[in-house]
Amino acid sequence: MTTPDLIRSVTYAAEQPGTKLLIIAAIHGNEKCGTVGCRRVMEDIDSGRLPIIKGQVTFVPIGNPRAYDLDQRYAERNLNRYLVPMANPDCYEARLGNILCPMLEACDVHLAIHSYTVGGEPFIFVAPNDPKEHAFAKALGARTLLTGWEEAYAATGRKTKIAGDEEATGSIEYARRHGAIAVNIECGQHKDPEAPHVAERAIRNALAYLGITAAEVAPKTDAAPTRMVEVKEVHYRDDIGEFPKPWKHLEKVAKGAVIATRANGEPIAAPDEGFIIMPKVDTPIGEEWFYFGVEKRA
Ligand SMILES: [Zn+2]
Asked: What is the CA(264)–ligand 1 centre distance, in A?
C-alpha cells in the first residue's frame, strides 16, 4: 500500500551541476512496470553501485498513489490529461497535479514511464521535429519512435488531445511547455513480465546518456535499427464496429487491407502500407479505437 495523499519523490543531486532529469512512473495507477524499474535503479544508487556524478535525477516511482493501490488507470479522472496547476483543485488527481506541475517546471528532461493495453513491443512517443528529443529517445533502448500524434488528432477536427488544448495536457506536454525535453516510453502490455526490464533499461540509459551517471548507454537488445512511425489517422469507434482479427500493436498492414468494419459493414482500409497502432477491441463507443501510421523515411 502507498500513502494515497502523498507523492513520494526522491532526488539525487551531485555536487557538480548538470542536467536535471525527472522520472515519473505510474501516473496511470495500473501501469506499474516503471515503479519496479525506478526501485531497481534507486537501489543501485543507494548502495553506491551506480554513482550520480553530475546534475540530478528525481524519481517519482508512483505518480498516482490512490490509483496504484486500486490498480486502476485513475481514481477520479485521468491524471495525464488536464495536468495543469489549479487554484481550486476539484478532485484527487487535480490535487496531485498541483504537486507534480512544479516538478515538471523545474526539470530539464522528463521521462514518463507507461505501459499499454494490447500486447506488442515497447515504443516511445516523440514530437515530430525535435532532433534533441529524438536523440534522447533513441538512447533509451526501444526500437520504435512514434510521432505525428497531435497533427493526426488535429486532422480529425474533434476536440480531444489537440495541441495547446489544456484537456490534452499530460506530463510530457506540460514539461515541454516549460522548456524541457520530454518523452513518454510505453514499455509493453501492463502485465508483460518484460516491461519492468524495459523500464529499468530506459532509466539507466537516460541517466547514462545525460551524463548523470558514468555508465555507458546499453545497446538495444535486438539488432533492428530504430525506426520512426508517423501516425496518419485517428479512428474513433463511432458504432459497434469490429476488427477482422485480433491486431497487435505495430502490426504491419498492406495498402488496401481491411483494418476494421463499421457496424453497417463499411470497411476501413489501410490507405497505404503501414502499421496498426494501439487497437482497442472493447473501447467504448465514441472513444479512440485505433490509429494508422506509416514508417517515416529520414
Ligand atoms: Zn499510461
From this structure: 32
Cα(126) to centroid of ligand 1, in Å?
15
CA–CA gap between residue 197 and residue 235 (Å, rounded): 32
- The pLDDT of residue 162 is 43
Q: How far is the CA of 118 from the centre of ligand 1 (A)?
A: 12
CA 288–ligand 1 middle distance (angstroms): 15
Whether the predicted model's global pTM rises above the 0.85 cut: yes
Q: Across the chain, what does the average pLDDT equal?
A: 91
Query: Are residues 156 and 105 located together in one domain of the fold?
Result: yes
CATH number at residue 52: 3.40.630.10
161 pLDDT higher than 60: no
The dihedral through the CA atoms of 211, 212, 215, 220 has a sign that is negative
Q: Rounded to an integer, what distance in angstroms lies between the CA atom of residue 195 and that of residue 204?
A: 14
Q: Which domain holds residue 74?
A: 10-209
Q: Which residue has the higher pLDDT, 102 or 163?
A: 102
Residue 30 lies in a domain: yes
Domain membership flag for residue 5: no
Q: Which of 57, 170, 149, 73 is nearest to 116 (CA)?
A: 73
User: CA angle, corner 64, sides to 58 and 69, nearest 5?
Assistant: 125
| Same domain flag for 179 and 238 | no
Same domain, yes or no, for 149 and 205?
yes
The DSSP symbol for 244 reads: S
Angle at 294 between CA 289 and CA 295, to 5 degrees: 135
Number of domains in the chain: 2
